[in-house]
Each structure stands twice: as structure tokens, then as C-alpha cells.
Amino acid sequence: MLKFKNLAKRNILYYFTNRIRYNSCNNLELCSSNFTDHKSLLIRDNFITTEEENAILKEVEKKLNRMKYESSHWDDVIHGYREIQKLHWLESTQFIIDRLRSLVPPPLLPHTHILDLSPEGYITPHIDSVEYCGPCFAVLSLLSDAVIRLEHTESPDHWFKVLIKRYSVYVLDGKLRYQYKHSILNGKDATVNEVKIEKGRRLSVIVRGDITKEP
Q: Which of 81, 110, 128, 153 gets the highest tally of CB atoms within 10 A of its CB?
């Protein structure tokens, strides 16, 4: 019964509290004025506080700092990165992770993916493999602003760019999850409406839906 109540509570949080769509913003660049697919993006600024960011960093940096930045991922998508998978959190940070997990409808993968991009790091256009990720995932952005670009797989002239601010969270699902490749732009290409965005070291906290289980 407790498990059912928790599941119901998470569904309520997801469907009624968090479906705030990204309809218009100065930090948005579209391929054309009549383009509308960007309205499917869920994004929320100031999802966490500086104190909450510090709590997460304190918990993950000890392990990350023992690792070197890798020049390229096995699939050549991520460059200048280090990463860990984290299953258990301290009580002081678990509530933050729970808040992030409430943005993704169950079932979810049990672990949280921590992706650390160096100041020079970037992510090339890709769609997350259905073997490792379900129909929805949420990304919490720490330490630095960045620019995400989404491009339609079959119509490359359909694209948009968004400034992803530090402390913000964005969610990809539906059309944007399966029909759009997404990337995090490197320094020279990190612009929105010709405004240069300075990207430093960026830490992403990622929760993913689980495709291997039935809801």
C-alpha cells in the first residue's frame, strides 16, 4: 500500500505540478518564426539553490576528483568528460534527487547519472539509445550555463537552441526525445541569437525512465 501511495504521489507531482512548458524566452533561438516544436520542451530555472548545489557537489566530487577527464566517450558522443553512476545518496541530498525524479514518470532507472564536462567539454548531436533510457529523462545543470541545440533527425533545417542556466532543469520526452538529436555546444559554438554564452565546467545530474519495466 505504501509503495502504491508513493507511486500515486509521484504521478500527481509529475502531471499536475511540473508540466510547465517552455513557450517563449529571450534565451531561445529558433530556425524560423513559425517553428513550434520547442514548445514541447519542459524547462525550469532555479530548480535548486546554491546550498543544494553545494550539497550535491560535496557528495560526488571526492570520487570524481580521483578520475581524469576522458577525451572521448566509447560512442564518440561526449568529449572532455568524467562520469559516475550513483545509487545511494545521503539524507541531506536525497530529497533533492527525489524532487528531480518526480519530473520523470515511473518506472525509473534506480541509479542517477552524474556527468562532469570540463570547460572545453561538449556533447555531439545524438538520441539516447532506447537500450539504456526510457521515454523520458530529466537533467539538472550545475556549476555553469550551457547551450543545448536540438535538431530534427529527418529535417535538419528544423532546429532550436536554448540557454540552459545553472541551477535549472530540463526534461526531454515525446517528440523531442525520439525525433530530435540533442547536443551541448562547445565554446566557440555556444551562442543564442548571436550572444556568446561562456561555458565553464558543467555538472549534470540525470535521471532516466526505465524502458525495461512495465509501469
A: 81
For the segment 146-172, the average pLDDT, to the nearest whole number, is 97
Which tens digit of pLDDT belongs to each residue from 20-70? 454 445 689 999 999 999 989 999 999 999 999 999 999 999 999 999 999
Closest Cα to residue 206, out of 174, 176, 169, 179? 169
CATH match of 2-208 with 3.40.190.10:
no
Does the CA dihedral 193-44-213-16 come out positive or negative? negative
* Least confidently predicted of 11-15, 92-96, 163-167: 11-15
